Q: What sequence folds into this?
């Protein structure tokens, strides 16, 4: 399927895709400690023991997405390679 992401919604019958798969550009790489992050209704990151950072490397830049566990706030920084 390539590199990208899908958002899922947990329901009583299990998780189901809430949207289509979103591919990243060809050549992009993603680094994170886990491939599943879980958030509660208020947006707080609830998955215990997971990293709160995703790094996405492109051809000229890399982006770091940091999710703050208590609030679910996402911060994105862009850095030249």
A:
């Amino acid at each position: 399927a390539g590199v990208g992401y899908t958002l899922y919604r947990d329901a009583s019958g299990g998780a189901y895709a809430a949207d289509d798969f979103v591919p990243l550009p060809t050549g992009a790489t993603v680094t994170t400690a886990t491939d599943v992050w879980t958030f509660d209704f208020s947006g707080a990151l609830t998955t215990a023991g997971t990293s709160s950072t995703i790094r996405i490397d492109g051809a000229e830049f890399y982006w770091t997405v940091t999710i703050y566990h208590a609030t679910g706030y996402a911060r994105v920084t862009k850095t030249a390679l």
Strands lie at 4-5, 8-11, 14-17, 22-23, 29-32, 53-57, 61-67, 74-80.
